[in-house]
Amino acid sequence: MKAYLILCKPRVVLLMLLTVWAGMYLAAPASLPWALWITATIGIALMSGAAATFNHVIDQRVDRLMDRTKKRPLVTGSISPLKASCFAIVLAIVGFLVLWLEVNALTAILTLFTAIGYAAIYSIYLKRATSQNIVIGGLSGAMPPLLGWTAATNHMSLDGWALVLIIFLWTPAHFWALCIHRYEDYKKTTIPMLPITHGIPFTKVNISIYSFLTVLSSLLPFALGMSRGIYLISAIVLGVGFMAYTLRLQFSNHDSRIAIKTFRYSIIYLMILFVMLLVDHHINLLG
């Protein structure tokens, strides 16, 4: 059971679900029904777990070459590729049916396209085709807030897409910092990650640019009237911290050590940013 859970990348899915919940609560015109919250969470989590499992199946040969991934279940042989594929198919079918029957068709279809975008288009093609793989493919990983939005409203909106934009711009800085830390790992593979194809100095410049764009986009919820002062102050403070880490990486010679700190802070940054969206929204409702 532990091996199957690892295939679903639970920590990644939990962070995604946090952004889903933010989208749901910000979109809900009134109080959000518990039944809708539960079914949307279950459906999106199952389909996300399915996409993550397919990613394990597709990347198993690459995973054998990297220290970071060589203990994954498919690499160690604790689960066979066939069993993992069947597991992913069951998760995807159940998740899709839950969303289609208990939430709405729009959310079910968007979640399906998001899962296909990550498991197939990104994992099979983009990841190996271009050094901009994480930028182009990042849209799939950025979609969860919009899925939450459509789950609550059954339609898409500019506000929902603004939340998507934050994660879309955050992803390159987040992932490229990890790539710098794991530079020697990625050199063992044929995956054209930006630090390998264009060098670490060029990558650090791009990390700084994307982190700055992320901080700017994080102000959109306030600018669009989705949040108020509590969120704005939080976004500014968190953004200053994010820029401090990326600029420190930019001008540091200790690339690997500062890069992993930047990577870890980027996770904390996104998590707290969306938590503060929820806190701000809740306080405004009480007010």
Task: Set down the secondary structure blueprint.
Blueprint: H1 2-7, H2 10-27, H3 34-58, H4 60-65, H5 73-76, H6 81-102, H7 105-129, H8 133-136, H9 138-142, H10 144-153, H11 158-181, H12 183-187, H13 194-198, H14 200-217, H15 220-223, H16 229-250, H17 255-286
Helix pairs in contact: 2-3, 2-10, 2-17, 3-6, 3-7, 3-10, 6-7, 7-10, 10-11, 11-14, 11-17, 14-16, 16-17
Structure report:
The protein has two domains: 1-154, Orthogonal Bundle (Tetracycline Repressor, domain 2); 157-287. With 287 residues, it is an all-alpha fold. The model has no long low-confidence stretch (mean pLDDT 93). It starts with a helix and ends with a helix. The radius of gyration is 19 Å and the shape is globular. The protein is built from 17 helices and no strands. The longest helix is centred in the C-terminal third of the chain and has 32 residues, at 255-286. It has helices at 2-7, 10-27, 34-58, 60-65, 73-76, 81-102, 105-129, 133-136, 138-142, 144-153, 158-181, 183-187, 194-198, 200-217, 220-223, 229-250, 255-286.
Characterize this entry briefly:
With about 290 residues, the protein is mainly α.
